[in-house]
Protein 1
Amino acid sequence: FGVPYLENDNNNIQLLGKTSKTIFDTTIKEKVLGVEGVINITSYRSILDQISGELDISFRAEIESGELIPIAINETL
């Protein structure tokens, strides 16, 4: 999805550890809505456990046909 979780040669910003949850969530939602065919996000949740480094993001995206697509991402950083 091209989300700049960590700063590197390709990303001049870093979402994790250096920004607010509001900016993090807004960036993720913008990236999802930028995917061709996605017209809406009907639900969204994100949790970052800073002790374990576990990131959970789940959302439901509505596509042009009206279908709702559930997505769940779980990463350990």
Protein 2
Amino acid sequence: MYDSTKTAERIKYIAKLKKIPLNVLLSNCELGINTISKMAKGKDITLSNFYKLAEALGCSLDYLTGRTDCPDVAQPKQAPEAPASGEKPEGETIPEKE
């Protein structure tokens, strides 16, 4: 379950580890100076703002929100390009219309 206090603490912790002052972090993310203290008090934060913080801190959204204790960001494999409309995906067949 999401715990806003834990999230605020994790943001502070990672910022400290990376030697990023909170005011600089928040400024770089275009967030207000009180964002973290409001979050710790249970105020909502948008997904977009979570993404900005995770990106700036180099950690995963799952870590910030408490879904995992591992701050590492998994590097996704390159997804194959979607075929153009009407083309068959490689290795698949499209049934003919009757």
Protein 3
Amino acid sequence: MRDYVLLTDSCCDLSAEMAAKLGVEILPLSLEMGGKSYRNYPDGRDIGFQEFYTRLRAGELATTSAVNVAAYTDTVEPLLQAGKDVLILAFSSGLSTTCNSAEVAAEELRERYPQRKLYVVDTLCASLGQGLLVWLAAREQKKGRTIEEVRDWAEAHKQAVCHQFTVQDLKFLKRGGRITATTAVLGSMLQIKPLLHVDQEGRLTAVGKARGRHASLKALVDKMEKTVTEEGRKTVFISHGDCRKDAVTVADMVRERFGTQDIRINFVGPVIGAHSGPGTLALFYLGTER
């Protein structure tokens, strides 16, 4: 079988250890904060995750921009030159133009390296939802599947990756235009916490609300109970915006209710965290529908 590499971007929020174990290449995306540009490396070498959230809580603003075509070209071309084929699993096109940049770069590189195979999958996923799809795809690769088989597997299963999440501070969603200023003010006053998910088109959508933090965390697990498959009970990913205690609370709920043993917890990285803010808590699993 021809050798190939799985490549994703840092919006997958996989830890450096997980990526290394999987043999997955990760392209770090960028953010601007305090007049300086940082790259979102999985190991936090450019900006630490706790440092990032501490600065957000102190009132600093962070902005992001999609990765450009050249960044993908510069990452993929050496792999092709080394005789490897490449399967790119990209951040949702419903949330960013990152996937489009990957597709443009791939089209250009196919012309230069017609003997190599280069495919792009729009995961329609974000954070550790994207990470879960990449993790499962890497598991298929390790079974000896060809690059086309893993590509087709990812296309067939991406809609089964459920994203359930809530946020602590509504001002970050307001700033991104996800909720109105009035909703943000009233929600903060009444301790209303929105319940959101990533829909079938890979877009962020509000699906409900809960009164208070604990109720919002429980609501995530309640939603999981309605949609999780038997396979989905086996492995669950949880990402958090520097609120690990809450992540552990949700993990305990999931373990108690579903008997799940394989639960992975990691930070929401700075690129997504710039839009969701500190206190974001997200739950990811395989389900019957998003």
Protein 4
Amino acid sequence: MKAVRIHEFGGPEVLKIEEVPEPTIRPGDVLIQTEAAGVNYADVMTRIGMYPIRGLPITPGLEVAGRIVKAGDAVTDFKAGDRVVAMLNAGGYAERVAAPAAAVFSVPDSLSAVQAAALPVNYLTALHMLREFGRLAPGESVLIQAAASGVGTAAIQLARLLGARIFATASAEDKLALARELGAHETINYTTHDFAEIVKAGTGGRGVDLILECVGGDVFDKSLQCLAPLGRLITYGVAGGVPGTILTPLLLFGNLSVIGFHLGRYYQTRPNREGMQEILRLVAAGRIRPIISATFPLREVAKAHDHLSERKTRGKVLLVP
């Protein structure tokens, strides 16, 4: 079977399509014929050597959707032919993938494989940041940076359901239009306007209660200035490649919190199925929807990474083997 392999860190050219053996499954695993695989910024960070991994070579990819080819002897909830979506530690950029049954979920008939594969990483990240880590309450305000990204489009929809007032930033008018369509109340083009000034003005100088930030550098630093007293900032990425600076007096006198979130590490310490099951219920009920930016065949994986890293995304990027 074909899979994408990384043997050295670098640009998109290090993503190599290779023939590899089919994965073997353990008694508690299922083997999935991949119909769609999510592409995440974590994959880009892995490729360039800025993400913690056990070593090279590696096949990136944290989520896939498709049909089960084979189920291990200890698996009772799934059988060959079932349509599923799976969360992975790695390995999704491949024609077939082995996954623990505990990390596999049934896909409703109303959802395509592409739509299903767009859900796990982005929507679970948004859900846990907003609710468990951010403690967002009805009537509170939230600033969502990179609002047209996969996580950003998920976070806007979920924050709307949680009853928040939503400020959203993006770099182009069509991205801002998408944010408004999904439920953002105030949108800001950060390339032409000072988002901190607009947030402060829009909240009467108070600031927002919660910020979701994934860029780092100056964006992180300016975001801290947008927090209301007792506000929380959640950092879940460093897409700009430069970490932010935390000024402890600012935290001290504002009673502010800076919280880190990493979905994979969170699920290693608190494995559960409830979050994904809730996301699937919300999609089935039509209350949220996956936003697809672009799909690429496996052979064009380098183009998929370029699409993501060049900030062309309006939602999720996926590979279709």
